[in-house]
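> run fold Sporulation protein
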Amino acid sequence: MLRGRYWVMMTLLALVCTAAAGWDSAGAAGYNEVLLPVSRSVSGMAGTPAEPTQPSVAAKASALQLEKQAEALYGYVTEGNINKTRETIDAISRLFVASSFEGLTSVEGVNALSGAILDMKAAASAVQLQPERWELAAARLRLAANSLTHPRQPMWLQYYKLILEDLNDMERSAAGSDQAGWRTAVSRLQERYDTIRPAVIITRKPEEVNRFDAWLSYASGLASAARPPGREELMDAVSNGREAARVMFGKEKDEPTLSLPLGPREYGLAGWLGAGFILAALAYTGYRKYRGEKSRWNPY
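> ok
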C-alpha cells in the first residue's frame, strides 16, 4: 500500500517538473522573440552613420544678409564714411547674435567669423582712426561672410596667386642666401594670410588650416633664428610651403606652381681648387695615353 502511494507521488512529481520545464522553455523562447527584434533595431541604429546637418532656410538667409552688409561695410570704409561704418558694424553684430549658421560651417568657422566681427568693431571704436587697420578688418570680414554663402568658390581663393608670388620671393632669397629678403617675403605672406585666415577656417578642414599655420610659424622662425639657416634648409621650407598652400587652396598636385629655377650654387675657393685639380689630373691622364699611343706606332 505504501509502495503504491510512493509510486503515485513520484509520478505526480515528475509530471509537475516536466510541466515547469516546458513553461520555462516556452517563456524563454517568447522572451527572446520579444528582445531580439529590439536588439536588432538598436544595433542597426548604432551602425547607421549620422548624416551631416543640412543648413536651414533661415541660416542661408542670414548668411546672405550678412554678406550684403559686409560688402556695404567695406564700401563705407574705403569711402571713409565713419558714421555709416559704425552703424553697419553694429547691425552686423546684432544679426550675428540673432542668427544660427549651423550646417554652413563648423564651430571653428563660427568662432572665426565672430573674431572678424570683433576686430572690425575694435577698429571702428578706436579713439584714433587708422585707415589701414579699418580696411584690413573690413576686408577680413567681407571675405569671411562671402565664405558662408559661397563655400565652393569663395573669394579668398583669388589670393593663391599672391601667395605663390611670396613663395617665389622666398625661394629667390633662399637661392641667394638673402636673409633680409627672406624676412621681407615671409612678413608679406603673413599679412596676406592673416587677411584670409577667418575665411579659410570657415570653408576648410581644421587639419588643412593647422598644417599651413604650422609651416608659416616654422618659416617665420627661420627668419629670426640665431643661427642663419643654410640654403638647403630654406629651399626645403619653400617646398613644404608650396605643398601646404596647394592643399589649402584645393589645387591638383600636378598643377604648375610657378616654381623658380634654382640659382647657381656658389662653390667658393675650395670648390674651384678641387675642380682645377680634377681637370689637371684628367689632362695629365690624356697626355700619358697620347704618349703611349705615339710610342707604339713610332718605335724609332
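Confidence is low (pLDDT under 50) at residues 1-9, 11-51, 257-267, 296-300.
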